[in-house]
Structure formats: C-alpha cells, structure tokens
Amino acid sequence: MQHLKHRVFSLIAIFSLLSCGEDSYDIEMLAYDFEADEIVTKVNTVKTLDDLGKLEGRATRLRGGLSIELDQISGMVRWNRVGTPVAFNALEIDNVYHPTDYNSLAMVSVYYNIEAIMLYMEALGMPKGKLGRIDTYYWADVTDIYSSGMGTVVKEKSTNNAFYLSLSQRDRGFYILPFDLSPKLLSQVDRVPLSMNPGVIAHEYSHAVFQELVLDSLPKGGVELAITPYNYLWALNEGIADIFAVASTGDTDFITASISDPTARRDALDVVEYKFSYDSNIRNKGTYFDDPYEIGQFFSATIYEIARRFQGLAPNGLTKADAPARREVARITYKALSALPKFGIHNFRPADFFTVFVSHVGPGRHETVCQVLSERFQIHYTEVEGCL
After folding, report:
1. For residue 8, what pLDDT is reported?
2. What are phi and psi of 329, to 5 degrees?
C-alpha cells in the first residue's frame, strides 16, 4: 500500500508539471444530496483543472494558510499571513481519484462547487474567463474586530462561514472558514457546512459576477454613491445571488440545508409583495444597509415566480420550476445585469432593474412578466418601463 501511495502521488506531481491546459478528472468528493437531505460521497468529473496536485484551474485556485483581520471599527483589512498552494492527496484506482485525507476531500468538493456555478454562468452567456481566476482561501484564519457597543473592542475568530470578499478589482477571493458544528458555538450553522452547500457556493460566486458586471462599472465599486441607491444595489446583489443559486441547484430554500433557524429562511417559493416599508427602511437608514435580504428575497421570489409562469404553472403555487424555466430566467437576469450600467445606476431604484429585465424578455413573454410584476410590485408597477 505504501508503494501504491508513492506511485499515485508521483503521478499527480507529473500531471502538475506536464499539464498545459484544462484536464478532466473523476474524483470522489463530498456532496449535499438535497432530496436525501444529507452529505454523501460521490464521484464527480472535475473539468477545468490544470494542476491537480495543487487544485488550481480555471474556476479557482485553492490556497491555505491565510490569516487576516477584518477590522470593522477602522474599516481595514490586515493581512497577517498570505495564502500558499495546497496539496491534494489521493489514490488513483481505475482512473478515479480517492482523497486520502479529510481536507483533500473537502477542498476538491469546494473546487467542484465553484466550477459548477462557473460553467452554469458560462452557459447563460458569461464569456469564458470573464472573472479571471479568483483564489479560494481554504480553512482561512479570519479574526473579526468590532465594538461591543459598550466601548469594548472584541476580537473573535470566525468559523462555519463561506464568503466572497472584494478588496479591489485585483484583490478578491472566496473564503472558506473552519468547520465546527459544536453546539457550544454561537454560529447559526448547525447542519451542512456552508462550503459543502452548492447553493451557498453559487450564491457567493454570483456576488463576484455582480461585482464584475455592475459594481466595477462605478468608481471605487460604488461606495461613493448616495446611501439610498447603494443600499438598493446591495439588496439587488443579495437577491440576484439567491436566484442564481436557486436556478442552478433547483433548491428554492438552499440555505436551510445549512441553517435550521427559521429566521434565516429565504424560500423563493414564498409569495413576497413589495411593501412601502421596504423603501422607508432604506431611505430613513442614513447609513449603509444592515439587512439587504428583505428586498433581496423580493427580487429572488419574484424572478422565480416568473420562471414558474414561463412553465405554465398555476400562480403562487408550491410546484417548483423545472430546469429549462429556471435557466431561461437566469439567462435574462444575466443579460439584465450586463446592461444595467448602461441604463444608469447612479440613482438606482428597484424599478430600474425590472425595466432592464423586461427589455431582455423574448417575444410572447412580456405579458407573463408584467403580470407577475403587477401582482408583486404593485406599488411601483407604473415605474417599470415596458409593461404599460
């Protein structure tokens, strides 16, 4: 057995040296089975690797050993230790790679989930290589620094999280924090680790897409916008990330696979009508939004209902949209995001997104989209150009 391990690891090293393009590998990994509601091991084909031994490819590049401090008091990010290449260890048996340690199993699962949403976006129309290769920092050591509200500075290690962070157009990445589902921790995550939830990874990747298509069109990523349009864009960002996650996975409430707390639920099947309070909550905030999911779920649930209507399903029902219908609204959503900066977003409001969305709907579909908007966006329906 020792000899076999040495032979396989040598092969991985040779592949790393000889690879000059993308290669496909059949690899055993961890996956979340939505129907069975459990983590399983299964063999999936990873299609975009150019270095198997380091888990580097077009989708992402795994890095380990990162240590940073997120100082919410000063608004600074301090890098204590940069990430370095990881080592993927596996046995190759009958052309299938079987990871020999837990971290290798988890890391390749993360790579696969990122690759899956990247390929889905490319199928929607995103040009190959549009985002470049974004690094993924595995088992990142992240310390949050914040004020307790009583003048005390708190330093707290973060766990059980996965997020996208963009510090600049050239410095952005996905962060996979240590998993620890011990009940003594205060984390909300009490089920599937977020990094093993394909919906969560799709959601985070979609933030990078939104950054590329929308925020990067603005000076300094939009932070110089007035508070109200910036917060509306933030809510749109969250809603769009949810709808891409739902469209790609087929699970309308993917977050509950990881968090059982009902207050975290954001099911796209919910009937969410836009309320006057949504606007007042933003306009009276006076600072950056702290709850973008309220309007975000309105966006995702409304777009998902459009997918259901495209399929001819009864209004506001519990039957889920099929893959073609989900893909159609996801494609329209991607096109709308691409066109949004040209429409103008310096004074962005939710009706602007739907105006652009409607303009990208194919013949025979306008009436369906406008019907949904008339029901769920009634208080601002007259502001949507293309429906009246």
Report:
1. 37
2. -70, -30
User: How far out from the chain centre does Cα 18 lie?
Assistant: 32
Strands in 148-257 per DSSP E: 153-157, 162-168, 171-176
Q: Measured between alpha carbons, how far apart are the two ends of the chain, in Å?
A: 72
Q: What is the DSSP string of 176-198?
A: EPPP---TTS--S--SS-GGG-H
Helix (H) or strand (E) holding 78: strand 76-81
pLDDT bracket for residue 149 (50, 70, 90) = confident
Q: Domain limits of the chain?
A: 214-388
List, in sequence order, every residue forming a beta bridge with 178; answer none if it has no partner: none
CA distance 158 to 169: 25
CB count within 10 Å of CB 102 equals: 10
Amino acid identity of residue 332, one-letter, is I
From residue 372, how far is each of 115, 234, 235, 280 by CA, in Å?
33, 23, 20, 23
List C-alpha distances in Å: 196 to 189, 202, 233.
12, 11, 28
CB-based contact 266:256 (threshold 8 Å): no
If one compares 9 and 30, the residue with the highest pLDDT of the two is: 30
What is the SS3 assignment for 325? helix
Helices then strands, counting H and E runs in the chain, come out as 9, 14
Q: Classify residue 365 by its DSSP letter.
A: -
pLDDT digits (tens, 9 = 90+) for 63-95: 999 999 999 888 889 989 999 999 999 999 999
What are the distances in angstroms from CA 285 to CA 44, 227, 230, 327? 46, 8, 12, 35
| Residue bearing tokens 């470049």 | 132
Give the burial class of 315: count Cβ atoms within 10 A of its Cβ; 0-12 exposed, 13-18 middle, 19 or more buried. exposed
- 156-172 tens-digit pLDDT: 998 888 999 987 666 79
Task: State the residue for tokens 């459990």.
Answer: 38
Could you tell me the two tokens for 225?
Answer: 């916008």
What single-letter amino acid sits at 388? L
- Compute the half-sphere exposure of residue 323: CA atoms within 13 Å on the CB side of its CA: 5
- The whole-angstrom separation of Cα 137 and Cα 119 is 21
Q: In the block, which residue shows the tokens 């502001």?
A: 383
